[in-house]
Structures are given as C-alpha cells and as structure tokens.
Amino acid sequence: MKWKEILIRYGELSLKGRNRNHFVRKLRTNIKNAMVDLKSVQLRAERDRMFLIADDEADMKEAIERLPHIFGIQSFSPVAMCDADLDAIKQKALEVIGTEETAGKTFKVEIKRADKTFPYVTGELQKAIGGHVLHHFPELVVQMKKPDIMLLVDIRKEGAFLTSKVYKGAGGMPVGSNGHSLLMLSGGIDSPVAGYLLMKRGVSIDAVHFASPPYTSELAKRKVMDLTEMLCSFGASVRLHVIPFTELQQAIVQQVPDNLTMTSTRRVMLQIADLVREEIGALALVTGESLGQVASQTLESLTAINEVTATPILRPLIAMDKLDIIELSQQIGTYDISIRPYEDCCTIFTPSNPKTKPKLERVLHFESFFDFQPLIEEAVKNREVIEVWQQQEKDNFEDLL
Ligand code: ATP
Ligand code: MG
C-alpha cells in the first residue's frame, strides 16, 4: 500500500479558542508555502486537524521531510482511510501493518471512537482488529506497554483513519499568527537562536544587520544572509535590512571614551533598529542578549542601552546558559554558519576594557557633544533590503522569471 494522505495534528492550537480560525488559516498558508513546488500536494483544513493529500510518491516523501520544520504542528501521520465499517477496517489494518517490518516486533491496537454511534465498543474492536492482524502476521507479539508497532484506528462519522506511524512536529504556533517583530541579527551564535525561538511562538520577523565595510567583509554579509535563509526554513520569507554602520562607529569612537563606546554603539544600533521597526510596522525588537554573557549584557548595561526607546525589546535568551544556546543552534542548523570566522562590526571596534556598569549620565554627557541624528537617519535611508526566500519558494520564484 502507498500512503496518499497525511493527518496533521495541531496540538496547542486547539487550545486557542476564538483565535483558532486565524491560527489554522496561518498554518495552512505556511504549509502551502513550504510545499509550493510539490505539484501533487493539496491541503484540506478541518477544525481540529488538517489533511495533506499527495498522489505522487516522491511528493509524499518530501512532504514528510518538510513538515517537522513547520511551527504549529504537534505531530503528523501518514494515514489510510476506509469506510467506518468493521470489515473494511480489518482489511485496511492488514495493509497498514504491511508497510511495517514485522519480524520479531511487538504490537498493539489503539482505538479512538469519536463516532459514538458506531455499533461496537472499544474492547470489541480491539479484539476483532487485533485478532485479524495477528492471524495474518503470526510473528507479531502483543504488548500493551511501548509496543514497536502501534496501530491507531480513529473512527469518525465520515470514515475510519488508520496509521502505524506518528512523527513529532516542531510544536509552537504558526509563524505569523502572533504578530511581526524585527530581529537584530549579528553573525554570532545567539541572535539566530533568538529569532528561531520567537518564530516558534508564532512571530514573523524581519532582520536587521549592521555592517561596517571595509572593516567587515562581503563574506560576513553572506554569512548573515545564510543565517537568514536558515531561519526562513522555519516559517515564511524573512526580509533582511543591512545597515551601513561604518561612519557611525567611527563617530562614536571619536566622541566617546574607549570604555563606553560599546554602550553608545548599542544605543545607536537600537535607535536605528527602532526606526526600521517603525517603518515596517513591526511591534517589537528581538535580540540575542543573555544576562552576564559579556560587558554589554549586565543589567546596568541593558538599562543604559534600553533608554533610547520605549519599544518592547524581546530577549528570549536572557536566562539561558551559553552551552544550552549552542546546543539549540546545533539542533536548528545555524551553528555551523555562525562559527564561520568573519568579523562582526562589534568585534572590530570592541574596546579593550568596556564598562560592565556604565553610568547613563556619563554616556549621555559624551553623546551630547555630537549630533548623531543625521547619521542615524542617513543609515536608515541607505540600508540595503534583501528578500531572502524560503528555498522552495525561491525555486518557484525563479520559475516565474
Ligand atoms: P550574538 O551571538 O547574537 O552575536 P553576542 O553574544 O555576540 O550575540 P553581542 O555582540 O553583545 O552578543 O550582541 C548582543 C545582541 O546585539 C546580539 O544578539 C544581536 O541581537 C545584537 N547585535 C550585535 N551585533 C549586531 C550586528 N552587527 N547587527 C545586528 N545586531 C547585532
Ligand atoms: Mg556578537
């Protein structure tokens, strides 16, 4: 038997009451975008679950590989469907078990009877279907706890759904179902992970990156584009704004004493990011800051940096250990890109001894001798905007050209 349908379970989504329709619609769109090049794929969304239908076997295989990346999916299973009729179910059960390696395996039947009018109770069904399977696959051994093969039979009014495979989904909520934010994306390990975590909570993102050519190279930019592309695989497309930052960094180095340049640099970055945020209509900024990791990430520093804006700054890594962040970055595939050796604008201008407890009055004092505003506005205006597409979307896009 060849699988032709995948049952997609929403999990957390189903808890969301009135917002559910919105979430389901977003999830449907995101799955559709992720599968856009798989021509035989169709989607059918229901209130509490979704079906992906693919007639082509290769499409089916590819869909199974892509689904674990899409947020808002709790789990999914290729399913076989038949009439809600005991003989039909017994027959289908054999076909489903036929897709498994059965030699030396343990086995159990699990029944869900959503259609309470179905004329058999759960125990009877378990016996009848299980007995039929064992008759045809005598090598199987029944085991109630943690069997190797679990045959799930879901009986509903519209028919019976059978599967023996449950794949874990990415969890979280569909990207775009919880608003839009601007991620401050360096080439480091932390900020891509911060972006990933926000996307997992359903937030779609634009990214902003500060580059200081010629001190930072084209390869550093390439790295950030690759990170952005990796983030795209978890949701929709991400727009990357690259800010020309050299002049401002030089101005800061000239105006502010060495041990406070880091604080001023962060403050200026935040002001620029906030202007971009406003322009694109995003509600919050996201950073990869983690408490105590470096001098600019003490509570005193964060307070002095925050002072430039009232916009919410989301810091999903604030309480995470570096090793846990690294592990997550390895899991999501950004680590290998992040450790490429190209210099970031901050690394190059890093003072030898940055203040861990910068005094806001001192920072304001030194900043007051220079009008940064025109340079800030110019940097926003002269930014380069790069549309980074999801791989599949990009292929499709190129087809259209
Ligand atoms: P990361 O690994 O994300 O670079 P980090 O531990 O190196 O973080 P910092 O260099 O202090 O920490 O940067 C703190 C945060 O400021 C980053 O997580 C990122 O959100 C933002 N940031 C730093 N440099 C840049 C940059 N060049 N462009 C955009 N955002 C940046
Ligand atoms: Mg960094």
From TrEMBL:
<keyword id="KW-0808">Transferase</keyword>
<dbReference type="InterPro" id="IPR050102">
    <property type="entry name" value="tRNA_sulfurtransferase_ThiI"/>
</dbReference>
<dbReference type="InterPro" id="IPR014729">
    <property type="entry name" value="Rossmann-like_a/b/a_fold"/>
</dbReference>
<dbReference type="GO" id="GO:0140741">
    <property type="term" value="F:tRNA-uracil-4 sulfurtransferase activity"/>
</dbReference>
<dbReference type="Pfam" id="PF02926">
    <property type="entry name" value="THUMP"/>
</dbReference>
<dbReference type="Pfam" id="PF22025">
    <property type="entry name" value="ThiI_fer"/>
</dbReference>
<keyword id="KW-0067">ATP-binding</keyword>
<comment type="pathway">
    <text>Cofactor biosynthesis; thiamine diphosphate biosynthesis.</text>
</comment>
<feature type="binding site">
    <location>
        <position position="266"/>
    </location>
    <ligand>
        <name>ATP</name>
    </ligand>
</feature>
<feature type="binding site">
    <location>
        <begin position="184"/>
        <end position="185"/>
    </location>
    <ligand>
        <name>ATP</name>
    </ligand>
</feature>
<dbReference type="InterPro" id="IPR020536">
    <property type="entry name" value="ThiI_AANH"/>
</dbReference>
<dbReference type="Pfam" id="PF02568">
    <property type="entry name" value="ThiI"/>
</dbReference>
<comment type="similarity">
    <text>Belongs to the ThiI family.</text>
</comment>
<protein>
    <recommendedName>
        <fullName>Probable tRNA sulfurtransferase</fullName>
        <ecNumber>2.8.1.4</ecNumber>
    </recommendedName>
</protein>
<feature type="domain" description="THUMP">
    <location>
        <begin position="61"/>
        <end position="166"/>
    </location>
</feature>
<feature type="binding site">
    <location>
        <begin position="209"/>
        <end position="210"/>
    </location>
    <ligand>
        <name>ATP</name>
    </ligand>
</feature>
<dbReference type="InterPro" id="IPR049962">
    <property type="entry name" value="THUMP_ThiI"/>
</dbReference>
<dbReference type="InterPro" id="IPR004114">
    <property type="entry name" value="THUMP_dom"/>
</dbReference>
<keyword id="KW-0963">Cytoplasm</keyword>
<keyword id="KW-0694">RNA-binding</keyword>
<keyword id="KW-0547">Nucleotide-binding</keyword>
<dbReference type="InterPro" id="IPR054173">
    <property type="entry name" value="ThiI_fer"/>
</dbReference>
<feature type="binding site">
    <location>
        <position position="288"/>
    </location>
    <ligand>
        <name>ATP</name>
    </ligand>
</feature>
<keyword id="KW-0820">tRNA-binding</keyword>
<keyword id="KW-0784">Thiamine biosynthesis</keyword>
<dbReference type="InterPro" id="IPR003720">
    <property type="entry name" value="tRNA_STrfase"/>
</dbReference>
<dbReference type="InterPro" id="IPR049961">
    <property type="entry name" value="ThiI_N"/>
</dbReference>
<comment type="function">
    <text>Catalyzes the ATP-dependent transfer of a sulfur to tRNA to produce 4-thiouridine in position 8 of tRNAs, which functions as a near-UV photosensor. Also catalyzes the transfer of sulfur to the sulfur carrier protein ThiS, forming ThiS-thiocarboxylate. This is a step in the synthesis of thiazole, in the thiamine biosynthesis pathway. The sulfur is donated as persulfide by IscS.</text>
</comment>
<feature type="binding site">
    <location>
        <position position="297"/>
    </location>
    <ligand>
        <name>ATP</name>
    </ligand>
</feature>
